[in-house]
Amino acid sequence: MKTDSQLKRDVLEELEWDPQVDHADIGVSVVDGVVALNGWVKSYAEKIAAERAVKRVGGVNAIAEELKIRFSSDAKTADHEIARRILDIFKYSALIPEEKIQVKVEKGWVSLTGDVEWNYQSSEAAKAAGKVTGVVGVSNSLAIRNRADISDVRKRIEEAFKRQADLDAASVTITATGNKVTLGGKVKAWHERKLAEQAAWSAPGVTKVEDNIIIS
């Protein structure tokens, strides 16, 4: 007598072998010889073909069939289809290091793991994943690999200020703890404060910027 795991394997192989069935969107579970089918097929004929394939497998006591018909014009919202579209978006984005990011999709919820060098890469990946049809939420667990470097943050702020007239980077104080950068000091106008904050965010390793700059 076959175990449930053996029966599941045989059913999956039979579905894959049948040329009338696209098994990619069909899920199979087995409990006490009862086979449950769920997922999507492209037509009623394919639905019947899947049932027949399961019935051909020895050891099947009963079938609980919950397959839904989805036409080719319908939105592709199966988990593996969502994951594939996200990976495609990552692949063609110059802002996202797709080779460093792992994507998991479960019931429409996307989980991103891995490590990147820049905060904007993490933000861009989460933003891109959230725009895909069928996504119900995104958990962004991407880690920023580098630690914030005060000298690099200072350099970037100085360069940003030099590009504009009458801005003094020396008036801005910088401290870093891990990946958090805290800005202090005084500037003359709001846009100077914003410029310093943007420059801090552009430094590798920065995941949080606390802006305590005073406008005087």
Topology:
Elements (H helix, E strand, L loop, with lengths): L3 H14 L8 E6 L2 E8 L2 H12 L6 E8 L9 H13 L9 E6 L2 E8 L2 H12 L6 E4 L2 E2 L5 H13 L9 E6 L2 E8 L2 H12 L6 E4 L2 E2 L1
Textual characterization of the structure:
The protein contains six helices and eleven strands. It is α/β, with parallel strands linked by helices and 216 residues long. It folds into three domains: 4-69, Histidine-containing Protein, Chain: A (2-Layer Sandwich); 79-144, Histidine-containing Protein, Chain: A (2-Layer Sandwich); 150-215, Fe-S cluster assembly (FSCA) (GMP Synthetase, Chain A, domain 3). The strands form three sheets. Strands 4, 5, 6 and 7 form a four-stranded mixed β-sheet that branches. Strands 8, 9, 10 and 11 form a four-stranded mixed β-sheet that branches. A three-stranded mixed β-sheet has the order 1-2-3. α5 (150-162) packs across α6.
Task: Tell me, rounded to a whole number, the average pLDDT.
Answer: 85
- Main beta sheet, described? 4 strands, mixed
Overall CATH class of the largest domain:
Alpha Beta
Q: What is the assembly state of the chains in this entry?
A: single chain
- Over all CA atoms, what is the radius of gyration? 27 Å
Tally the structural domains.
Answer: 3
- Share of residues in strands: 25-35%
How many helices? The count is 6
**Which bin fits the share of residues in helices?**
25-40%
User: What global shape is seen?
Assistant: elongated
Number-wise, the strands total 11
What would you call the structural class? alpha/beta
